[in-house]
Amino acid sequence: MRNNIxxxxxxxxxxxxxxxxxxxxxxxxxxxxxxxxxxxPPNAVAATRQALxxxxxxxxxxxxxxxxxxxAIAADLRERTGITYDPGRQICVTSGGTAAVMPVLxxxxxxxxxxxLTDPTYAGLLQRVRLASARPHLVPLHVDGGLWRLDREAxxxxxxxxxxxxxxxxxxxxxxxxAEDWAAVAEACERLDAYxxxxxxxxxxxxxxxxxxxxxxxxxxxxxxxxxxxVSKEYRMIGWRIGxxxxxxxxxxxxxVAVTYNTTVASGFAQIGVAVAxxxxxxxxxxxxxxxxxxxTVARQLRGLPLVRAAGGWSCLVDAEELGxxxxxxxxxxxxxxxxxxxxxxAWGGEVAHRYVRLVFSNEPIKRLAELRDRFDAAL
Length: 380
What we know:
Layout: H1 15-22, E1 29-30, H2 42-54, H3 67-81, E2 91-94, H4 101-108, E3 114-119, H5 123-131, E4 135-144, E5 147-150, H6 152-156, E6 163-167, H7 179-192, E7 195-199, E8 225-230, E9 243-246, H8 249-263, H9 268-279, H10 284-301, E10 307-308, E11 315-319, H11 327-336, E12 340-341, E13 343-344, E14 356-360, H12 366-369, H13 372-379
Parallel strand pairs: 1-12, 3-4, 3-6, 6-7, 7-8
Antiparallel strand pairs: 2-9, 4-5, 8-9, 10-11, 11-14, 13-14
């Protein structure tokens, strides 16, 4: 059987391996997967149920998303970016945010072209670059004052790229880009004539004291930016599997073709529920406050250990190598001795990511997170 070069360097998430090892033991702290116990908006749940009862959205059409949802996305984007997007020509609904990544990469890259990501980054972004036959170029994040920072000098040294594929806040690190970071990205995109593919799935999950900047608000970036959004994280609607792409009309024409032939249509029932989530109060502010409180609990519990604090998002990282333990071994010891399910970052970047184990704090209440230090001590 022939080998396929696209898969040569594609690695497993490792999340499923850790989850299977943890099983269904209720005594295990579940910090391996990006789930959440903070409930979705009740109004969105009710609207989805009503759509099912009424038979709304039970159709293949429209391929690019229901008009009511595309209009709600346009209104949300106008508030975030200050830009008016044409719902028909510049917005396409997808089956979750990550399902949008491959069609966008296919529309903006040719085989062998370079795509810039951070190290670490979300494995679902990095491995999709490889599956699209593009070449990932990793710009390292470094730790400064206990927080992650973008290596802007490394960014300035890049000599070729078709696109930059970035998140803020980013998985798995929780890094939040500053105005200076985005200005450096804008300079690099303009210099290299590259697109910015911006995964905005966590854009509003930013903790107090850190900036929240949409790159479309940065000079010279809006006309190059393709936004990928979803309701999975901000709205806690993971199971709905609804996301979207928005961007300049010329490139969106290609992206819509790629999305249509990839999935045909996202769930119509779910689209109706998501439209309500985007247009009515949905508890985002309250959820962010809860995630910040959980993050602070993790930071207090692991004081003195090599934890890098997050500025936003649902997870943070522990430096296993600074503890003198390879990341996979620390993950195994946390589970077998400390009863903590946590994922090593083997597939989530390069030299930087491989040092770390991720702790997801979005799916465990503060009362259980308060046991974290005792469990770490047992593991170590």
